[in-house]
Design a protein that fits this description.
CATH superfamily: D-tyrosyl-tRNA(Tyr) deacylase
Number of helices: 2
Strand content: 35-45%
Radius of gyration: 15 Å
Length: about 150
């Protein structure tokens, strides 16, 4: 399971020209699920994300978590995070989980994040053609892979 976290001043998901979800200050989470992922991957990632200190404190140091600032979360499914570009110019998505696996994991991720976090969790719609707007704060963008716990 991979996530791309973006610290944002605001972000929104638009579907069919209507804003579906939006957040103010917080984290935009692009979530890629692969077929081998399990609930343990979600549990580890959610714990890591909620505790991640990537917001500035009063002295301008990245020392605060999203929850400490009462920031919001916006979770968007993105199977393309598992693109393989090893061969040719057309990416392969063979590692990305099929919907029958990915949808329950995506829903579990959102529910678990909402349970563990102290703040609001919003989301996109799995499989929808979404337009994502954001103002990246910093910019701060972090990639985390549950299979490569660095």
């Amino acid at each position: 399971m991979k996530v791309v976290l973006q610290r944002v001043n605001n972000a929104s998901v638009t579907i069919e020209e209507k804003v579906h979800s939006s957040i103010d200050r917080g984290l935009l989470i692009l979530l890629g699920i692969e077929h081998e992922d399990e609930k343990a991957d979600v549990d580890w990632l959610v714990s890591k994300i909620v505790g991640l200190r990537i917001f500035n404190d009063a002295e301008g140091k990245m020392n605060l978590s999203n929850d400490e600032l009462n920031g919001e979360y916006l979770v968007v499914s993105q199977f393309t995070l598992h693109a393989s570009t090893k061969k040719g110019n057309r990416p392969s998505y063979i590692k990305a989980a099929r919907p029958e696996v990915a949808i329950p994991m995506y829903e579990y991720f959102i529910k678990h994040l909402a349970t563990i976090s102290q703040t609001k969790v919003k989301s996109g719609v799995f499989g929808a053609d979404m337009k994502i707007s954001l103002i990246n704060d910093g910019p701060v963008t972090i990639i985390i892979d549950s299979k490569n716990k660095e």
